[in-house]
Amino acid sequence: MWEYTNKVQQHFLHPKNVGEIEKPDGIGEVGSLACGDALKLTFKLDDKGVIADAKFKTFGCASAIASSSVLTEMIIGMTLEEAAKVTNEDIADRLGGLPKEKMHCSVMGREALESAIANYRGLKLPMAEGEIVCECFGVTDLEIIRAIKESNLRSVEEITNFTKAGGGCGKCIDRLREILMATVHQGVDIKKIAEKPKRMTTLQKIKKIEEALEREIRPGLRKDGGDIELVDVDGDFVMVSLRGSCTSCAKSQTTLKEYVEKKLRELVLDSLIVEESK
Amino acid sequence: MMNPEEAVYMDNNATTRVAPEVLEAMMPYLRDYYGNPSSMHRFGGQVGAAIAEAREKVANLLGADPEEIVFTSCGTESDSTAIFSALQSFPDKRHIVTTRVEHPAVKNLCESLDTLTGHKHRLSRLMVDSDGTLDLQKYEEALADDTAIVSIMWANNETGVIFPIAEMARMARERGILFHTDAVQAVGKVPINLKELDVDFLSLSGHKLHGPKGIGVLYVRRGTPFVPFLVGGHQERGRRGGTENVASIVGLGCACDLAATHMAEENSRVKALRDKLEQGLLAAIPHSMLNGHKTDRLPNTSNISFEYVEGEAILLHMDQYNICASSGSACTSGSLEPSHVLRAMGVPFTAAHGSIRYSLSIYNTEAEIDFVLEKMPPIIAGLRQMSPFWKVDA
Ligand SMILES: Cc1ncc(COP(=O)(O)O)c(C=O)c1O
Ligand code: FES
């Protein structure tokens, strides 16, 4: 059974603002029956441009219904500018948190809101224009990149929890890992990541990685006068620093990917991504 | 904690209530007779007699000999033991015939064999029809010279659909192929007489027939090549190491005795309750449908899809009335896709996400059926009213 907060249960059992506004100013529709959840959000503005009323219709589990209900409650009384700033984390926070596997329900709320605002403004949603990466759940690269950036995602598993991408046939997982790498590379504040409290699973990872480095990897590098240090582990990202002759070796990048990453994937976890910390 | 007296329990394919008689039979072995049956003193040794008696009771229910009964820790261990044993007995055979609708205990094991053993295996995973039944001709075609074992469940845990085990086992035997059946859901509900069957291995689990959790049995036909899964002491005549779970073994023996007594009731009174529930729901709730064959099915199971609503939401509303059942929806499986069984049957997503499995037992009453029949229609109607896909019928 899922651990739902009282707030989630309340909104699920007694949802607010169920229905559809007639002649709405904005309509947002996301999800599909095949995906297992879908949300249709409608709102009406008053003459000052404030959201006077909002209603939802949701197909989905308890957390999908609760996220929709709390979202309508949050945005009524907001200006469109304020509403446009609501994030999925805000929705989850208002519910007292969601189980991590259910975060995609809050993302669905945010997407419906965005799509309703875009509909009002007569704009096309940028997200929908991306290229579909996960066919099972119809998730585009733009949506994935955004989730990675906004929620500071650090593993393919987290991407699945937030966007559902990768949760079906698994065919898109390699592509997800590529997008994760590429996105994290562009301007993510490494220091901020390092300050994030380490969860137990990360601790276990570190221990295993250290073991693998010591037993399997260092001996090989030392033979050639090189060495390697583990600098940090964050989600699937393993930051290492090459030492000794490795630093000046032209082939150090190849060593990192072809040797260190391959070994660590083999010995510790399939999804690890090894990077050089500079 | 929810008061057990208040539970309207219709989730017996997940697990069952321990029969009061079973609990009573177990208590002395938890409280007083704690000796080890392998000991040389009488205090321990006398416990061995209780195990022998339980073994006989299990054998009686299955139409087997007591020596063919190996006690294990659960249904999952029995399944693993049978499959690994066959693969080790025939190292040059790396083909397995199974189905797409097996319980994870068989399905996930078969899919992980390559990584677990370091050898490549070939799997024939038979498709099922839209009513969950198998095509015997396809089955026959799948049997090959390098087939080490067939592993096919007797009855499906999600839909209750029963497979023609007698025929399939015969076809395997004719080709000299070992046949395993996961009968965890079938034992106690359908008559089984292993003397008349060509089954080599059969798995059962205590907690599905009003016995305790954490006890299982693997039937191993006399003369079948066998390699133990748990290697250790000489318990179970060297076929399964580990000090016996005495109280649970005694409890399982008692549960098998009871199952034999109650089998007729399962197939008459319980079946009638199930039919009343099923027909009542299908009649009262539009856009609902039965998943699984109408008649080739366990007498206690009914899997019904309510279109345009999602299973977890239904279950949590039922929970408000203390009604306990299961769903094949994605959200309840902990994955993002609905049940592999319903997908193999080709149940459309619109219906798979809204599937509810009701599974009854002899402890259910007619009053409970009436209660569920009263509560379900407004639950589904309420959720549909909230669903963007639900269009009120014109
Ligand atoms: C068909 C089937 N096989 C195997 C099992 C696993 O049994 P156990 O829980 O005793 O390991 C179950 C129980 O869920 C089942 O329904
Ligand atoms: S394509 Fe992404 S899970 Fe199937």
Task: Please explain how this structure is put together.
Chain A has 278 residues and is α+β, with helices and mostly antiparallel strands. Chain A folds into 3 domains: 6-120, Alpha-Beta Complex (Sufe protein. Chain: A), CATH 3.90.1010.10; 132-194, BFD-like [2Fe-2S]-binding domain (Arc Repressor Mutant, subunit A), CATH 1.10.10; 202-276, GMP Synthetase, Chain A, domain 3 (2-Layer Sandwich), CATH 3.30.300.130. Helices cover 49% and strands 18% of the residues of chain A. Chain A has a 3-stranded antiparallel beta sheet. Chain A has a 3-stranded mixed beta sheet with strand order 6-7-8. In chain A, a hairpin with a 2-residue loop joins β6 and β7. The longest helix of chain A has 24 residues, at 200-223. Chain B is of the alpha/beta class and 394 residues long. Chain B has 2 domains: 7-16 and 262-385, Aspartate Aminotransferase, domain 1; 20-258, Aspartate Aminotransferase, domain 2. Chain B is built from 12 helices and 13 strands. Chain B has a 7-stranded mixed beta sheet with strand order 2-8-7-6-5-3-4, sandwiched between helices. A 4-stranded antiparallel beta sheet of chain B has the order 9-10-13-12, covered by helices on one side. Chain B is globular, with a radius of gyration of 22 Å. The N and C termini of chain B lie far apart (45 Å). The A-B interface holds A 2, 12-13, 15, 18, 29, 33-34, 36-40, 57-62, 64-65, 101, 136-137, 160, 164, 167-168 and B 308-313, 316-317, 320, 329-331, 334-338, 349-350, 353, 385-389. Bound molecules: pyridoxal-5'-phosphate and FE2/S2 (inorganic) cluster. FE2/S2 (inorganic) cluster is lined by residues 134-136, 165-172 of chain A. Residues 74-76, 103, 105, 153, 157, 182, 184-185, 205, 216 of chain B line the site of pyridoxal-5'-phosphate.
